[in-house]
Amino acid sequence: MRILITNDDGINAPGLKVLHDIARDIAGGDGEVWTVAPAFEQSGVGHCISYTHPFMVIQMDERRFAAEGSPADCVLAGLHEVMKDTRPDLVLSGVNRGNNSAENTLYSGTIGGALEASLQGLPAIALSQYYGPGNNMLDNPFEAAAKHGADTIRRILNSKPSNTPGYQTFYNVNFPPVPAADVKGTRVAPQGLRRDTSFSVEPHDSPSGRRFLWIKGGDQRAQTDAGADAAVNLDGYISVTPMRADLTAHDLLDPLKDVFA
Q1: For 64-164, where are the alpha helices, taking DSSP H only?
Q2: At the N or C end, where does the chain have fewer CB atoms within 10 A?
Q3: pLDDT score of 26
């Protein structure tokens, strides 16, 4: 198997090394793992692409490239330049430092990389490691992802998901904020919503008197509906969420048609 990996934390991020090891396990002895990852951190860029300006791709090592762009840019570069003659069988994005459950999904560059791969017609999985008191002081905070990542990916691939003629399916996997030995199992879960919390800004004045705003994340312990991705993660389970790029509120189509009839 030929696998392309990317992330949004940057090419030198420890989570990308974890993902490379996972991908090597999945690819097997005769397989190949190719890396095209951002040269610098691109957290929070979502599905952004560098549409109005070019970006450079630099080879760092054999099958390892850094791109001056977003994760979606990296996937485009991987498919249409770096691997244009050897198209991958699978695209993996991550392992993100921090969860991409609930509303975080919509901001995530990690998700953006997997989403772009799905738009290009390829199987794709995004992987993220929830951080919390149970794992952030471990020697390897990515322990749960490192231990359970390959098996989780194999189970998804073995489910033989059928793609429709429309938007293709990709998968969002989040590992719980616990040591690997404390992972309780895996739950297929919908995307949740953390209530009464959201991203915001925090203003600060520089020594020169200029006003700057820092983007500030919401409380990652805020509750979602029971059984949703963040809820099962905080309960010690890996969450697997099938996703598509279609943002249509299908339940509102017919009522809205009646309004405009």
Answers
A1: 71-77, 104-107, 109-119, 143-158
A2: C
A3: 98
Closest CA to 199 of 105, 58, 112: 105
CA distance 102 to 10: 23
The residue range of the domain holding 100 is 2-193+222-260
For residue 4, is it left (φ>0), alpha (ψ between -120 and 50) or beta? beta
Structural domains counted in the chain:
1
Euclidean distance between CA atoms 52 and 247, whole angstroms: 24
Among 34, 32, 82, which residue's Cα sits nearest to residue 55? 82
Binding site membership: which residues? 8-9, 43, 96
pLDDT number for residue 33: 98
Q: What is the DSSP-derived secondary structure letter of residue 159?
A: T
Instruction: Let me know how long the chain is.
Output: 261
Q: List the binding residues for a divalent metal cation.
A: 8-9, 43, 96
> Rounded to 5 degrees, what are φ and ψ at 252?
-100, -5
pLDDT bin (cut points 50, 70, 90) of residue 139 is very high
What CATH code is carried by the domain that includes residue 229? 3.40.1210.10
Q: How many C-beta atoms lie closer than 10 Å to residue 208's C-beta?
A: 5
Kindly state whether residue 252 falls inside one of the protein's structural domains. Answer: yes
- What pTM was computed for the model? 0.96
Q: Does 129 reside within a domain?
A: yes
Give the DSSP H or E segment for 37. Answer: strand 32-38
209, part of any domain:
no
229-250 mean pLDDT: 97
Average pLDDT over residues 186-198: 95
